[in-house]
Design a protein that fits this description.
four-stranded antiparallel sheet, 46% helix, 4 strands, Ion_tolerance_CutA, plastid, elongated, alpha+beta
């Protein structure tokens, strides 16, 4: 077991300035350990333990400091996200909102369905995206069709009513209705979604 003195560590060119505080922490730790274990030999000049295996403890201290830094960064990011979420939830001008995807066979069907959804206040806005091509499995075969995609912004509470409306006004036997939560965004836009839809 190698014996290492503090003076050797501090004068070594291989130890960077960033690690010097860890050496100091090690010395404090060593002094504390010596009080618990009198059998440890101490140098009267430096106050550091000379007979302790430094490599494992030094590695442990280095790992612990990195781990604490990582945790503090993660905690600050999580706290900031929580503050934003709390701010949004506490804002009574917004409601939980969703984006819903619905595909339709053509432009005419898309226009008709989009207008009926907005007219019934089942959504604040419907974007129509023409010219998509869908490849899917149906009745045991691979089908390819040109379609139009509707991107619908509405309240989460209206999903069931919107789904029933799509099923009643769609020519497909199994129309696509897929909802995804809106977890953040422009507060004025989210307020507009609430104000443009029915309760």
């Amino acid at each position: 077991m190698a014996l290492i003195k503090l003076s050797a560590i501090t004068s070594s060119s291989t130890v960077s300035r960033r690690r010097l505080p860890l050496v100091g922490a090690f010395c404090v730790l060593s002094s504390g350990l010596s009080n618990l274990c009198p059998s440890l030999s101490l140098s009267s000049k430096t106050g550091c333990a000379q007979s302790l295996p430094l490599a494992p403890l030094f590695s442990y201290l280095h790992f612990t400091s990195i781990n604490l830094i990582s945790r503090s960064k993660f905690s600050s990011q999580t706290a900031a996200q929580s503050v934003d979420r709390i701010r949004m939830e506490a804002n009574n001008k917004t409601v939980p909102s969703i984006v819903v995807y619905v595909t339709v066979p053509n432009k005419e069907a898309g226009k008709k369905l989009a207008e009926s959804i907005v007219k019934e206040k089942l959504a604040a806005c419907v974007n129509r995206v023409p010219g998509i091509e869908s490849v899917y499995q149906w009745q045991g075969g691979i089908q390819t069709d040109s379609e139009e995609l509707l991107i619908i912004k509405t309240r989460e509470s209206l999903l069931e009513a919107l789904t029933e409306h799509v099923k009643a006004n769609h020519e497909y036997e199994v129309p696509e209705v897929i909802a995804m939560p809106i977890t953040g965004g422009s507060l004025p836009y989210l307020e507009w979604i609430k104000n443009s839809t029915r309760d």
